[in-house]
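protein under study:
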Amino acid sequence: MAMTVVVTRNAAGRVRGFLTSCMCEIAPGVYTAPRMTEALRDRIWDVMTDWFEGGDSAIMMTWPDPSVPGGQGLRALGVPRTEVVDHHGIFLARRELNESQVRSLTNSDNWD
């Protein structure tokens, strides 16, 4: 059994109520369970997948998983669409930047 964390953004009321019934909400939209079995985690994720409405909502689940690089299992639903990538054993979330964001990062006037 492993610590499982679920983070939601703009989730429907029934999603939040369901997660609260099986996990502890430690902050708005952040749920934890210190000893969750893989089977229970899979059942909860199946409910989240069935109930997911899209729009601007998002759900992320993570738990320790020694069988994958970085030792952390991840599942995600929602937007903004981010790609979770393994970079030398560390999971990173990558997403496209718009032209304005790229300019602000490459403008040397912003570097002090």
